[in-house]
Write a structure and sequence with these properties.
Helix content is 57%, strand content 13%. By secondary structure, it is α+β, with helices and mostly antiparallel strands. The protein has 2 domains: 2-69 and 122-163, no CATH class; 76-119, no CATH class. Strands 1, 2, 3 and 4 form a 4-stranded antiparallel beta sheet that branches. The chain is elongated and about 60 Å long. The chain starts with a helix and ends with a helix.
């Protein structure tokens, strides 16, 4: 329920900015997706590359969708479990982050250097709820999109089907 509240708060903020023209509402969408993380960052990335929605993210730059994904504090040893005994070391700070995971450098006891990708705990915790919420947002948005070239309901449903 708390996650639903977070998403509604973000959507209300974007709506208020869109209605009042306080500043660029598209930039606000990107910032809210960044704050919500996981599924919403992935959806923003999908909007950025889809031919019918690229215009939504033009102007805010691809950096917010692809390059400036924030890091999340992760207890690596907890998440890699029994595999930890195979490593001589794993960097405590990630060198890259994506919408669903973070990437760390490590070294096996054999001396081989490896890359370790860890699923964000927040994604694991909120994935199902976020996909349901995104489907509802798509349906709701399509009510107001009218004859738009973009079918937000179909896009959200397709996205949820690929990531669910």
């Amino acid at each position: 329920m708390f996650r639903t509240f977070q998403v509604l708060r973000s959507a209300a903020r974007v709506g208020r900015i869109r209605l009042t023209n306080a500043y660029d509402w598209k930039l606000e969408i990107a910032q809210q997706c960044q704050e919500l993380g996981g599924v919403y960052i992935k959806f923003l990335q999908m909007l950025a590359v889809h031919h019918s929605t690229k215009y939504l993210v033009e102007g805010m730059g691809a950096a917010l969708a692809f390059e400036q994904v924030p890091y999340e504090k992760i207890d690596l040893h907890h998440h890699i479990g029994n595999l930890a005994e195979q490593f001589s070391s794993i960097d405590s700070k990630p060198f890259a982050a994506g919408s669903y995971g973070q990437v760390y450098m490590g070294q096996l006891k054999t001396g081989e250097k490896v890359v370790v990708k860890v699923l964000r705990p927040s994604v694991r915790k909120t994935l199902r709820t976020d996909l349901r919420i995104l489907t509802v947002i798509g349906a709701f948005t399509s009510l107001f999109a009218g004859t738009s070239m973009v079918n937000f309901r179909l896009m959200a449903k397709e996205f949820a089907g690929r990531h669910g």
